[in-house]
Specification:
single chain, alpha/beta, seven-stranded mixed sheet, six-stranded mixed sheet, 21 helices, 18% strand
């Protein structure tokens, strides 16, 4: 598998009820298409070779034998195809007919998987025609079909040359404990569902959530192919649903009510699923509880993944921390609530009369101030208890200074101004540092002086310092040790820079008054800068953070896939090139990914002693919880791989 991707296809053919010759021809065409598109596996709907709605015709010898003949045709076609096919048909065994999924590859039928849960309500009467897999009592039995000895197994895990899959059929998904739960516990990473669920008002939304939810519960990929055009509409209508989901995220879906065949193709990231399972201790615990059933491992001898080109069907989000549309509004509101709730609890616990924070006119301190205002409103405190201190220094520009003051005025907080220029000049003289040397000592002395002022002012006013640094800065170590690196409670510690901007914009649009909104919008448009180097001749910002450490959009992307998914550098780079195609060149991406790993490892010592702060998302660098790494861990292997990109 290239980077762990398995290409899957959900095929929805047109059918003619009980016309097996027509149906197998449609299946053959779609199987060829799936193979041509590089699919590793192609799943068809339930009973697709006969049609699902044959009713009492399933008791006819002719239909059952014609289905076997159709399977022979598919097997013959598959001899020269790499794709694994999974088709539905009725199978007679020991006086009972089973609703089965046939797994075919390279001319062989590897197994038949019978349906376990048979509906027998409303217009469904499957128990009238079929026997449940429960009759097998967990046993695997051999059956003679299509001139082959084939295992009939209710509990097979198929090993496809580097990835594993399991099968359940339609109603199985709706059971209290679906077979896919135990299949996943037994090692299946992708679940295939052959279905024929009818359409009903409101049912699609529920089924969609069910597929998403089951993929999340089992930490698996889930491929669902439902019966569509051509099934009998005597009492029910079948809309041809097709879904591809991965760990709670819908990757692709077909068109409902399409009066034509469909082939829905996407890729499932098996590597991501494996790493997610490693991190999920609950999943590890469930692997020991597979029931009393012996699970049959079936080797398909398939190629180890066929996704070897650059044409991923799935979308690679360039901003994984930032959702879109209405979800972004909901995310912003939720994060603000988490941040302010955490701060309010800290205020209550400490009995602090004030909170103190430095206001620079930049994004991070702006968000921290807005969180403080929200927290004070929630606990019924006067905002005058929020003390915002602006501390002009050598690089402070009129624009950021004015925005800082106007923002504090608009929010009605206590404003203090304390210049750091004289104190820093005196300090640099004391240590014998030339003021004209604008090096790291020159810069960090300003950050540490500001932190000292905040700490002492907080003591003076019976309060504590609220930190403003964000997750992206912590990942890169873009903070002065014992300077802006330190506080009593850091409200932004798990908010990445790409999301900070959206949070401030959301508050400007949905919470702030007109006066504050204008200030917030100008802050959003201001270049990101620590302002530690004197301004230019025209008073413009002379130091731009992204020119020094790289675009935060790239670094947040690297951070997400390194921490959240545990991907190695080659895969992170591969995904970044997909996500930022047309935005950043390959050379730019490779340059900054090297800088990311260098800084991420080298700056761990700063994260090992972080102050408290609320976790808001799935990626966090708290040394007490989410991320624990020795401060002297070597980046050699990561950088070695980066050099080979």
């Amino acid at each position: 598998m290239q980077h762990g991707f398995v290409r899957v296809a959900a095929a929805v053919p047109t059918v003619r009820v009980a016309n097996v010759i027509y149906n197998v021809e449609q299946a053959e065409r779609l199987l060829l298409q799936a193979d041509g598109r590089g699919a590793d596996v192609c799943v068809f709907p339930e009973l697709s070779l006969t049609g699902y709605t044959c009713q009492d015709l399933f008791r006819q010898q002719l239909l059952i034998e014609e289905a076997e003949t159709a399977l022979v045709k598919l097997l013959d076609l598959s001899r020269n195809l790499a794709v694994i096919g999974v088709a539905g048909l009725p199978v007679l065994h020991r006086g009972a007919v089973y609703n089965c999924a046939a797994v075919i590859h390279r001319g062989k039928c590897l197994a038949l998987v019978p349906k376990t849960y048979l509906p027998n309500y409303n217009e469904y009467y499957e128990q009238r025609w079929f026997a449940s897999a429960a009759l097998l009592e967990g046993r695997t039995e051999n059956i003679r079909l299509c001139g082959q000895q084939i295992p009939l197994t209710p509990c097979g895990v198929f090993c496809a040359g580097g990835w594993n899959f399991g099968i359940e059929l339609c109603e199985d998904l709706w059971a209290v404990v679906p077979p896919s739960c135990r299949l996943a516990a037994a090692g299946a990473e992708i679940i295939l569902n052959l279905s024929a669920s009818n359409e009903q008002v409101g049912k699609n939304a529920y089924l969609r959530s069910l597929v998403n939810g089951q993929s999340a519960r089992t930490i698996s990929g889930y491929v669902y192919a439902g019966a569509g055009w051509g099934e009998s509409s005597q009492d029910l209508v079948y809309s041809g649903r097709a879904f591809v989901a991965e760990n709670g995220q819908m990757l692709a879906e077909g068109e409902r009510f399409a009066m034509k065949e469909q082939l829905v193709v996407s890729e499932i990231d098996v590597q991501r699923l494996r790493l997610e399972r490693i991190n999920n201790t609950t999943f590890r615990a469930t692997t020991a509880d597979r029931g009393a059933v012996e699970y049959l491992d079936i080797d398909t001898s398939a190629d180890s993944g066929r996704v070897c080109d650059d044409s991923l069907h799935r979308c690679v989000d360039p901003h994984p921390f930032v959702p879109s549309g209405r979800a972004l509004d909901e995310r912003c509101e939720e994060i603000l609530c988490i941040q302010s709730e955490g701060l309010a609890r800290r205020i209550e616990h400490t009995g602090a009369e004030t909170v103190v924070l430095g206001i620079s006119g930049g994004l991070d301190s702006t968000l921290a101030l807005l969180v403080c205002a929200n927290a004070f409103d929630r606990i019924g405190r006067d905002r005058k208890g929020i003390v915002g201190i602006t501390m002009p220094g050598f690089g402070t520009t009129d624009r950021t200074y004015t925005n800082a003051v106007n923002l504090m005025k608009g929010l009605g907080v206590t404003i203090r101004e304390i210049s750091i220029a004289a104190a820093v000049e005196g300090h640099l003289r004391d240590i014998g540092h030339d003021m004209s040397r604008h090096d790291v000592t020159y810069e960090n002395s300003q950050a540490r002086e500001r932190t000292q002022i905040l700490m002492d002012a907080a003591n003076q006013m019976n309060g504590f310092v609220v930190g403003t640094g964000d997750l992206s800065e912590l990942a890169l170590g873009w903070a002065t040790y014992n300077g802006d690196h330190m506080s009593m409670y850091g409200v932004n510690v798990s908010v990445p820079k790409t999301l900070v901007r959206h949070l401030v914009k959301w508050i400007a649009d949905n919470v702030a008054d007109a006066y504050s909104r204008a200030t917030l919008l100008d802050i959003i448009d201001t270049p990101i800068s620590p302002e530690l180097i004197p301004a230019g001749e025209a008073g413009e910002i002379a130091q731009r953070t992204e020119d020094l450490v790289g675009p935060y959009a790239l670094h947040d992307f690297f951070l997400y896939h390194t921490l959240r998914n545990g991907f190695r550098p080659s895969k992170v780079c591969y995904l970044a090139l997909k996500a930022f195609k047309g935005v950043y060149t390959e050379d730019v991406v490779k340059h900054w990914i090297r800088i990311f790993y260098q800084r991420f490892f080298a700056q761990q010592f700063k994260r090992s002693c972080l102050p408290d702060g609320p976790k808001v998302g799935s990626v966090c660098l708290s040394p007490r919880g989410d991320f624990r790494m020795p401060s002297d861990a070597s980046p050699a292997d990561w950088l070695k791989e980066v050099e080979t990109l």
